Amino acid sequence: MVPYAIEMTDRFRGITVREGILLSGPLGWGEFCPFPEYDDAIAARWLATAVEACTVGWPGPLRDAIPVNCIVPAVTPERAAELVVASGCSTAKVKVAERPDSLGEDLARVEAVRSALGPEGAIRVDANARWDADQAVHALRELTRVAGELEYAEQPCRTVEELAEVRRRVDVRIAADESIRQAADPTRVPLQEAADVAVIKCTPLGGVRRALEVAESTGLPCVVSSALETSIGMAAQVALAAALPELPFACGLGTVSLFREDVVRDGESLRPQKGFIRVPGAAPVPDRTALVSVGMPDPVRSAWWRARLGRAIDRLSDPSAAPQGWRKA
Predict the structure, then answer these.
(1) DSSP string, 268-282
(2) pLDDT of residue 60 exceeding 80
(3) pTM for this model (two decimals)
(4) 277 CB-contact burial (10 Å; exposed 0-12 / middle 13-18 / buried 19+)
(5) In CATH, what class is 2-59+287-317?
(6) Which among 170, 130, 167, 172 is positioned nearest to 151, based on CA atoms?
(7) Higher pLDDT, 186 or 321
(8) DSSP state of 110
(9) Which of 45, 105, 228, 312 has its CA 20 to 30 A from that of 114?
(10) Which of 50, 109, 57, 90 is closest to 227 using CA atoms?
(11) Is the pLDDT score of 325 beyond 70?
(12) How many CA atoms lie within 13 A of 176 on its CB side?
C-alpha cells in the first residue's frame, strides 16, 4: 500500500497535485485515487476497480493499440497549441466552461487548437456539466464557429433532460459522461434521446467487466476516458478500450502526459506515442525508484488517504453498501 503525490504539468480539474494509493495483490497492482471531494460510496467503486486489477485481471484484448486524443486543460491559447503539437495526436479534447464568464477564453483556446491541429484534425470539448441548456446552445454555436466543426460536446449540462434539449437545438453530437458514471445504476440511464456518444470510465464504474456491461447497456458508440490515473490505474482503462467490440473514436487516455512523473519505468509508461497507446502484454508494475520519488511526503495527508481506503474497504465488505454489480464482475 503506497500513497503517492505527483505534481502535474498544468492545473487540471482544479488541482496541481494528483494523489492516491497504489495497492498490490496476488495478481498485480491496482490504483485507488478517487478525487478528494467524492464521498465514500463513490470511492468504493474506485476501490472495486483496484481489487479487480489486483485479484482477477481483465478480459483479453481485441486490439493491440488504442487511438487517443490529446488533452488541453483550461490554459492559454499559446500553451494549448504547444500541447497539441507536442502530443502527435490528430484529435484534441479541450476543457471549456472553467468559469461562468470563460467563453471568450474558451473560444481563443479552441481557435488555437484548430490552428495547431490543422483543418483535418478533430476537436471535442468538455464542459463538465457547467452550463444550463441555453448557455450550452449559445456556447456550442460560438465554439463551432471558431472550430469549423466539433466532433462532439461532452456533458454540456448536468441532467439527461438538459442534454436532450441541447441535442435537439444544435448540430453537434452530444456525449454523456457524468450522466452515466454518477448514476445510481449506470446501466439504466435513458440516453436514447439525450446523447450520441457514451463516455465510459472504468475506474469510477467499478472495473473493466462492470464498464463493459455499462457500455453495452447504453446502445451508443463508446469512448473510453481516463480518471487521471498513473500508468498503474491507466492500464485498466486501456484494457477496457482493448476489450470493447468496437472503438469508433479516439479515446481520452492521454492524461499520464499531464504528470511530471509516473510510477513505472519510462519504457513502460502508458503515455501516448504519435497518437496511440500500445496495449501492454502484461499489467505494469511500479518502479521502486519512482515510488520513492512520488511517495506522499505529508504524514497527515498519508493518514487521511489510508483512513479513506479503510472506509472504502468496509463498504465493499458490506453487501448492502457495495457498488451494484461489483461482486458479480
Answers:
(1) G----BTTEEE--SS
(2) yes
(3) 0.94
(4) buried
(5) alpha beta
(6) 172
(7) 186
(8) H
(9) 228
(10) 50
(11) no
(12) 31
